[in-house]
C-alpha cells in the first residue's frame, strides 16, 4: 500500500430501493466531522430513484443485478478501490443507516488508541425513534439466537458506553481494515442478507483479529429488511426463514470439529422444539420457516463442508479466545424461561380481556337482568349464549391434556426414530440424489436419457412430486428426500387421526374416545418404520402409508347426500390416488378392486343407485384421474417395452419379495420390527368382532383387508422378468391398506366394547372378570405402538452417507463433463462370470435406477465388452471410444487375467487408482459425442402437455365451492 493510502477511509454504501432513507443518509455523510476520503456507492437494481440520489451526491454508482447479495455488492465496491492508493479503512453503511455527525471520527480515534483493532463498530440506535438501543456489539448463542445483551426496548442512557472487545459488529457502520477484509475472503456469499456480520466477526476472531465496539460512535438504523419494511428478491416474504437459515449456517460453518456433532444434534432437536413452541402460540408461518431452514441446510452439506475447509485455513487463534466472545451456554435456557413467562402473561391478559368483553356483551343484551343477577349470574348466562369462543387457555389445556401431551411425545420420538433423514440419506433401495434439482427436471421432461448407452424409457412417476417438493423447498433434491422421510410419520399420524375420528362417529354417535384415536393413529403412523420400509430406503411404502388415510378420508365424501360434494370428493381422491400410484403403482389395483366391489354392492342393495350417475361415476372418475396425470410415465413405459414399471415400487431393482407371514404381520422384510407386534394387531382385529354393536362395520373393514390380502396374493404369484434379472411386484400399497384396515377394525371394536360396557353398567354391574379382561386387552394393545416406537428409536436403520463406488475421484469429475466421458466398470471374475455397468455424470441417482433396470441390454456394448475381456484388440478400444467410454475400471479385487490382457492392449493407457488393488485404464481414442444422442418424441411432449393441463384442472376442481344462500 502506498503512503497516500495509509489512514485513508472509503465509505461504501449499498442501496436497494432505499429512496425513503437515502436523503438523510447522504446528509449524515456530508455532516461528518471527519469526512471519508471517498464515497463508493453500489446499487442492486433499485427502481425508486435511489440511483439518481446517490449519483447526484457522490458521482457514478456501481450497478448490480437485483438478486445480488450484500457480500457480492461489497465485493463489487472493493473492486473500484484496487490500485496503489487503495485505502486502509472501509466504512460499510446501508441505505437505511445514517451516521451521527461524529461517528467516523470516533471510530478512527478508537482505532488509533487501539492499534490492535482491525474491525470496529458503532452503537446502533433505532431509526426513527433515535433513542432506543438496537446493538452495542453482537454475539450468537448455541441455538443461533442473535444476542445483543440489551433488554427489550432499552433506551440509551450511556449505560453501555465502554469500548470493549466483542465477537462482531453490525455491517451498518462497520469500520474494517481493507487488508483484513480481503485476507478473510470478504463476507460469505452463502449469507446474502442476514448473519454475514456475525460470520465475519467469528472468522476474524478465529484468525487472531480484534473486533471492538465504540459506543461513542452512533449510527441510526431502520432495519428495513428485518422489519419487513421492504421486500427484496433475496428476502421474499419469509424473512424468518432467511434469518434462521443464516444462524444455522453460521453455527455449523464455524463450530469446532470436536463440538460439531453435538452442535448439529442440538440444532436439530432445538428446531423441533421451536416449531412446537411456534405452533403453541399459533405462529404457523414461523414454524414452517424453522423446518424449511433446517431442510434447506440439510440439502447444502457440500456448501457447509467447503465453508468449514475455508475457515480452517484461516484459523490461528486458540479456541478459548473465540469461546469467551460467544454467548454463555446458559443464556438460551434463560430465554426459554422468559418465553414461558411471556406466554403465561399473555394468556392471563387475554383471558381478562375476553371476560371483560363477555360482561360488556351481557350488559348490552339485557342491562336489567345483568344488574339484578349480579356479575356471577351474568357470566353464567354469557357462557351459554355468547358467541365469543373461549380459546384463550390453549396452552394450559394442552399441558393438562394427557392425550395431547402423549401425541406430541409420539411425534418427537418419531422424529428421533427417523433421525437418519437429516443430511444425505443413502442406503437399501434408496440411491444417492443428484447435485441439483435441474437433473430431476431434465429426467422428467426428456424423451431420451443419456443413461447407460441411452434409453427412451420414461422417468418413474414419483420423480415429478419429488421434483416439485425440491423446487418449492429450494434446498435441492437432498432436502426433498429428507423432508419426505422425516415428515412421513407425523403426516400419517395426523391423517389417521382425522380418518379414525370420522369413522368412529359413523359407528357410534359419540364416536371413539380420544385415547383410542391416538392409539390407532400412532399404530398406523409407525408402519413405515416398523415394516422396514423406512430403514430399507423404500420411498414408495413410506409415502403411501403417509397419504393413504388422507385419501381414505376424502373417499368418505362418496357417501355424501349432496352430488356436488360427491364430485368434489372424486377430484380430491383422484389427486391423492395419483400421488399414491406415483410412489406405489399397485395402489391403483387395490383402489380399483375396492371401488369395484363397493359400487357393485351398492348397486345390489340400492337398486336406484345404479341409475344415478352421480353415485357410481365419481369413483370411476377418481380412478381415471391418475391415468391422465401420469400419462408420460405409463404411456412411455408401454411404448418402450417397460410395462413392468406399472407394477414395481420405486428404488433400486431388483428387490426381494416378502414372505406371507411378514405381510400378515405388516413387514416388508426381516429388517422390520419383531413380527409378534404385527401378529398381535391381527389378534386384536379378530377380537374386534366380539362386540355386537359394531360387528357390521368391523366386518366391512375386514372385507377391505381381505381385498388387500387377495391383491397381495395375486401379486406374489407374479414374477417380472427385467433385463437386470427377476423382480417381484411392489406390495407397499396392499400392505398399507391391510394394516390400516386392521387398525380401523380394532378402533371400531373398541368403540363397540365401550358401548357394550356402558349398557351393562346401566342394567347390571359388569363382573370383575370382564373388567379385568378389558384392562388386560388395553395393556396388550398399548404394547403395539409402544414397542414399535421403542424399536424405531433404538434401532440403527442403516441409512447414511454414500459408501462410494470405488471409482477414482478424478474419473468421476471427468464423467461430469459430459455423457461421452463414460466409465466402464467391470465386476466379478472370469471363472464365476463378469458383469459390467456404465457410469455417466454423477452416477446412478434417485429416479435413474428404474430407468436403467427397465432398459434393454445394448447388444453392441455387450459384444464389445466380451471382446475386451477375452481377446482385446486396438479395434475393440476404438469401439469403446465410439460408444462414449473414456475409462475402464476393475474394482478391487481385480481379476488378474483380465488385467493382464488389458495391460497388453494397444490404445489402453494405465491410469492411477486410489486403491492399489483396483486397476484402471484410459481409452486413448477419440470419444464420440453422438453415441448417446436421441431425438425428441412427439408422443412424450403431448403426454407432458396433457399432464400439465390435467394437473391444473384437477387442482381447480378440488377447491371448495361457494354456496350461495338465498335471503328472504
UniProtKB/TrEMBL annotation:
InterPro entries the record matches: Glycosyltransf_2 (IPR050834), Nucleotide-diphossugar_trans (IPR029044)
SUPFAM superfamilies: Nucleotide-diphospho-sugar transferases
Span of the signal peptide: none
TM helices/strands, residue ranges: 463-494, 515-534, 589-609, 616-635, 672-691, 698-719, 731-751, 772-794, 938-959
Source organism per UniProt: Nocardioides dokdonensis FR1436
Keywords: Glycosyltransferase, Membrane, Transferase, Transmembrane, Transmembrane helix
GO function terms (MF aspect): decaprenyl-N-acetyl-alpha-D-glucosaminyl-pyrophosphate:dTDP-alpha-L-rhamnose rhamnosyltransferase activity
EC code(s) of this entry: 2.4.1.289
Organism phylogeny: Bacteria, Bacillati, Actinomycetota, Actinomycetes, Propionibacteriales
Gene: wbbL
Protein name: N-acetylglucosaminyl-diphospho-decaprenol L-rhamnosyltransferase
Entry-linked Pfam families: Glyco_tranf_2_3 (PF13641)
Amino acid at each position: 500500500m502506498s503512503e497516500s493510502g495509509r489512514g485513508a477511509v472509503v465509505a461504501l454504501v449499498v442501496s436497494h430501493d432505499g429512496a425513503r432513507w437515502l436523503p438523510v443518509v447522504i446528509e449524515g455523510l456530508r455532516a461528518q466531522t471527519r469526512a471519508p476520503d471517498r464515497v463508493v456507492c453500489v446499487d442492486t437494481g433499485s427502481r425508486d430513484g435511489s440511483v439518481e440520489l446517490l449519483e447526484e451526491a457522490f458521482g457514478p454508482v456501481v450497478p448490480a443485478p437485483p438478486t445480488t447479495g450484500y457480500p457480492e455488492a461489497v465485493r463489487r465496491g472493493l473492486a473500484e478501490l484496487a490500485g496503489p492508493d487503495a485505502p486502509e479503512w472501509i466504512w460499510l453503511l446501508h441505505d437505511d443507516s445514517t451516521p451521527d455527525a461524529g461517528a467516523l471520527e470516533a471510530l478512527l480515534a478508537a482505532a488509533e488508541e487501539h492499534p490492535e483493532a482491525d474491525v470496529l463498530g458503532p452503537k446502533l440506535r433505532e431509526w426513527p425513534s433515535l433513542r432506543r438501543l438496537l446493538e452495542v456489539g453482537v454475539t450468537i448463542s448455541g441455538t443461533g439466537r442473535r444476542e445483543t445483551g440489551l433488554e427489550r426496548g432499552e433506551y440509551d442512557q450511556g449505560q453501555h458506553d465502554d469500548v470493549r472487545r466483542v465477537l462482531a459488529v453490525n455491517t451498518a457502520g462497520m469500520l474494517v481494515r481493507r487488508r483484513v477484509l480481503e485476507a478473510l475472503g470478504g463476507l460469505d456469499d452463502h449469507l446474502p442478507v442476514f448473519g454475514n456480520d456475525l460470520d465475519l466477526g467469528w472468522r476474524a476472531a478465529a484468525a487472531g483479529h480484534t473486533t471492538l465496539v465504540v459506543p461513542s460512535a452512533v449510527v441510526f438504523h431502520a432495519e428495513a429488511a428485518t422489519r419487513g419494511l421492504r421486500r427484496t428478491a433475496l428476502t421474499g416474504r419469509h424473512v424468518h426463514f432467511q434469518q434462521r437459515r443464516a444462524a444455522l449456517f453460521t453455527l455449523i460453518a464455524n463450530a469446532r470439529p470436536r463440538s460439531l456433532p453435538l452442535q448439529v444434534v442440538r440444532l436439530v432437536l432445538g428446531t423441533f422444539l421451536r416449531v412446537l413452541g411456534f405452533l403453541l402460540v399459533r405462529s404457523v408461518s414461523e414454524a414452517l420457516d424453522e423446518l424449511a431452514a433446517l431442510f434447506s441446510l440439510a440439502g447444502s452439506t457440500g456448501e457447509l463442508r467447503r465453508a468449514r475447509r475455508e475457515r480452517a485455513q484461516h484459523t490461528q487463534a486458540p479456541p478459548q479466545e473465540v469461546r469467551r466472545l460467544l454467548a454463555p451456554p446458559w443464556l438460551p435456557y434463560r430465554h426459554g424461561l422468559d418465553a414461558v413467562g411471556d406466554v403465561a402473561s399473555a394468556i392471563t391478559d387475554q383471558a381478562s380481556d375476553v371476560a371483560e368483553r363477555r360482561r360488556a356483551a351481557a350488559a348490552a343484551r339485557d342491562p336489567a337482568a345483568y344488574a339484578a343477577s349480579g356479575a356471577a349470574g351474568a357470566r353464567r348466562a354469557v357462557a351459554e349464549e355468547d358467541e365469543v369462543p373461549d380459546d384463550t387457555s390453549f396452552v394450559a389445556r394442552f399441558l393438562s391434556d394427557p392425550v395431547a401431551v402423549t401425541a406430541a411425545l409420539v411425534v418427537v420420538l418419531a422424529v428421533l426414530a427417523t433421525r437418519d433423514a437429516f443430511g444425505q440419506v443413502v442406503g437399501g433401495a434408496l440411491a444417492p440424489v443428484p447435485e441439483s434439482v435441474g437433473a430431476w427436471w431434465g429426467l422428467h421432461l426428456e424423451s431420451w436419457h443419456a443413461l447407460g448407452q441411452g434409453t427412451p424409457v420414461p422417468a418413474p412417476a414419483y420423480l415429478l412430486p419429488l421434483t416439485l417438493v425440491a423446487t418449492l423447498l429450494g434446498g435441492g433434491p437432498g432436502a426433498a428426500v429428507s423432508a419426505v422421510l422425516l415428515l412421513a410419520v407425523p403426516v400419517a399420524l395426523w391423517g389417521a387421526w382425522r380418518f379414525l375420528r370420522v369413522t368412529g362417529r359413523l359407528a357410534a354417535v359419540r364416536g371413539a374416545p380420544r385415547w383410542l384415536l391416538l392409539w390407532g393413529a400412532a399404530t398406523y403412523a409407525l408402519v413405515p418404520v416398523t415394516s422396514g420400509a423406512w430403514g430399507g430406503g423404500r420411498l414408495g411404502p413410506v409415502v403411501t402409508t403417509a397419504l393413504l388415510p388422507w385419501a381414505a378420508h376424502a373417499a368418505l365424501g362418496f357417501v355424501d347426500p349432496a352430488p356436488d360434494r360427491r364430485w368434489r370428493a372424486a377430484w380430491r381422491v383422484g389427486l391423492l390416488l395419483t400421488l399414491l400410484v406415483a410412489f406405489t403403482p399397485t395402489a391403483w389395483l387395490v383402489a380399483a378392486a375396492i371401488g369395484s366391489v363397493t359400487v357393485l354392492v351398492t348397486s345390489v342393495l340400492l337398486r336406484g343407485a345404479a341409475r344415478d350417475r352421480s353415485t357410481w361415476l365419481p369413483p370411476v372418475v377418481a380412478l381415471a384421474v391418475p391415468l391422465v396425470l401420469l400419462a408420460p410415465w405409463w404411456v412411455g413405459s408401454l411404448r418402450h417395452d417397460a410395462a413392468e414399471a406399472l407394477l414395481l415400487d420405486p428404488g433400486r431393482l431388483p428387490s426381494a419379495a416378502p414372505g406371507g407371514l411378514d405381510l400378515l404381520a405388516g413387514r416388508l422384510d426381516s429388517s422390520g420390527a419383531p413380527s409378534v407386534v404385527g401378529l398381535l394387531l391381527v389378534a386384536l382385529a379378530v377380537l374386534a368382532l366380539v362386540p355386537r354393536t359394531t360387528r357390521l362395520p368391523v366386518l366391512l373393514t375386514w372385507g377391505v383387508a381381505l381385498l388387500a390380502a387377495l391383491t397381495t396374493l395375486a401379486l406374489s404369484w407374479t414374477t417380472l422378468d427385467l433385463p437386470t434379472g427377476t423382480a417381484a411386484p411392489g406390495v407397499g400399497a396392499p400392505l398399507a391398506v391391510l394394516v390400516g384396515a386392521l387398525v380401523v377394525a380394532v378402533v371400531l371394536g373398541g368403540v363397540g366394547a365401550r358401548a357394550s360396557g356402558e349398557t351393562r353398567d346401566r342394567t347390571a354391574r359388569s363382573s370383575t372378570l370382564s373388567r379385568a379382561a378389558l384392562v388386560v386387552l388395553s395393556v396388550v394393545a398399548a404394547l403395539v405402538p409402544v414397542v414399535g416406537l421403542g424399536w424405531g428409536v433404538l434401532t440403527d436403520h442403516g441409512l447414511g452417507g454414500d459408501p462410494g463406488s470405488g471409482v477414482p475421484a478424478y474419473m468421476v469429475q471427468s464423467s461430469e463433463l459430459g455423457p461421452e466421458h463414460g466409465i466402464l466398470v467391470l465386476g466379478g471374475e472370469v471363472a464365476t462370470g463378469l458383469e459390467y455397468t456404465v457410469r455417466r455424470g454423477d452416477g446412478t441417482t434417485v429416479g435413474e435406477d428404474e430407468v436403467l433396470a427397465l432398459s434393454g441390454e445394448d447388444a453392441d456394448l455387450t459384444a464389445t465388452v466380451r471382446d475386451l475381456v477375452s481377446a482385446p484388440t486396438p479395434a475393440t478400444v476404438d469401439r469403446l471410444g465410439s460408444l462414449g467410454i473414456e475409462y475402464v475400471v476393475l474394482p478391487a479385487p481385480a481379476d488378474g487375467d483380465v488385467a493382464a490382457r488389458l495391460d497388453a492392449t494397444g490404445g489402453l493407457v494405465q491410469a492411477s487408482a486410489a486403491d492399489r488393488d483396483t486397476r484402471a485404464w484410459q481409452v486413448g481414442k477419440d470419444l464420440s459425442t453422438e453415441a448417446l444422442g436421441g431425438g425428441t418424441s412427439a408422443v412424450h411432449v403431448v403426454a407432458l402437455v396433457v399432464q400439465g393441463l390435467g394437473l391444473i384442472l384437477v387442482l381447480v376442481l378440488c377447491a371448495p365451492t361457494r354456496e350461495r344462500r338465498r335471503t328472504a
